[in-house]
Automatic annotation (TrEMBL), chain A:
It is a single-pass membrane protein. Keywords: Cell inner membrane, Cell membrane, Cytochrome c-type biogenesis, Membrane, Transmembrane, Transmembrane helix, Transport. GO terms for biological process: cytochrome complex assembly; heme transport. This is Unannotated protein. InterPro entries: Haem_export_protD_CcmD (IPR007078).
Automatic annotation (TrEMBL), chain B:
This is Unannotated protein. GO terms for molecular function: heme binding; heme transmembrane transporter activity. It is a multi-pass membrane protein. The chain crosses the membrane at residues 26-44, 64-83, 95-118, 130-148, 164-184, 204-225. It is found in: Membrane. Pfam families: Cytochrom_C_asm (PF01578). It comes from freshwater metagenome.
């Protein structure tokens, strides 16, 4: 594949950025839910 | 017994997180769809007559700007609903804020993948072209929107300020989208949404492109659900902290 580094690079950058953001959302959500004194959330 | 204990653990974990069974299924669907998209885009889909293998960047570049547009339009719709509603629920503001943050991430990715494509096709990472410049301006505007959300004030003040700003910021989207027609632009015009019926794209390329839009849309919904729930928890903890501080001051005053 010609220009493989640019093509793979664009996919890897996107996957990494979305992965890191999703991981942060999950982790912070769990931390906040555990620290919250009210355990009855609208989505549970 | 072990199975029962595991079931109890999962139930507790679900309660103490922003996830539910539905979001877990949605997340799994997003992962499967994105994996299929990668195979379609990088291996199965043919090369373009003009662009060659560079077209493979388009299968990630186009969906990222699609998600950004969708996110910013949703931010505006939720902001308008908040401002116009009799019962001004902060839920609308939280969805607006969560959506804008996701939009900022995806517009940044669109600029980044676009500049990598530009380096191969145009020989440069960046030109002050109408489409590129207006997209960069859109990105900066929504960074400003997120900054305004962090200003001091009550949750209602935050919602009112940011809702007004969101309704102004969304006006940039048609400007970005039609910039390639309004001004002389290096950026190519739309290949699919041309308004006509003659789409000059190979069937598999077209399928990969639309599959990418669907996969990234599922990902967007998953991210949005989690992020707005996270904002709910942040707001709830902020209110609890404020209540506790007021209570402490009252006790001090009584003494």
């Amino acid at each position: 594949m010609e220009h493989a580094s640019f093509i793979i690079g664009s996919w890897v950058v996107t996957a990494l950025a979305v992965g890191v953001y999703a991981g942060w959302i999950i982790k912070r959500g769990r931390d906040l839910a555990r620290r919250s004194s009210d355990k009855d959330f609208p989505w549970t | 017994m072990a199975v029962r204990l595991r079931a109890v653990n999962i139930s507790t974990e679900t309660r103490l997180s922003t996830g539910t069974v539905a979001t877990r299924r949605l997340g799994a669907l997003a992962i499967v769809m994105l994996t299929v998209l990668a195979v379609l885009a990088l291996i199965i889909s043919p090369e373009d007559v003009n662009q060659g293998s560079t077209v493979r960047i388009m299968y990630v570049h186009v969906p990222t700007i699609w998600v950004a547009y969708m996110a910013f339009i949703l931010t505006a719709v939720c902001s308008a609903t908040y401002l116009s509603g009799r019962n001004r629920s902060l839920g609308w503001d939280r969805v607006a804020g969560a959506s804008a943050e996701i939009g900022v991430l995806f517009v940044a990715l669109s600029l980044l993948t676009g500049s990598l494509w530009g380096r191969i096709t145009w020989g440069t990472y960046w030109v002050w072209d109408a489409r590129l410049t207006s997209t960069a301006f859109l990105f900066i505007t929504y960074i400003g929107y997120l900054a305004v959300r962090r200003l001091d004030g009550t949750q209602r003040q935050r919602a009112r300020r940011s809702s007004v700003l969101a309704l102004l910021a969304v006006l940039e989207i048609p400007l970005v989208h039609f910039s390639v027609r309004l001004w002389r632009s290096l950026h190519q015009e739309a290949s699919v949404a041309t308004g006509g019926t003659d789409v000059e794209l190979d069937d598999l390329m077209l399928f990969s492109l639309f599959f990418g839009l669907a996969a990234f849309s599922v990902l967007f919904v998953w991210l949005l659900l989690h992020r707005q729930r996270m904002l709910y928890l942040e707001d709830a903890m902020s209110s609890q902290g404020l209540d506790a501080a007021i209570e402490a001051r009252r006790k001090e005053a009584v003494r």
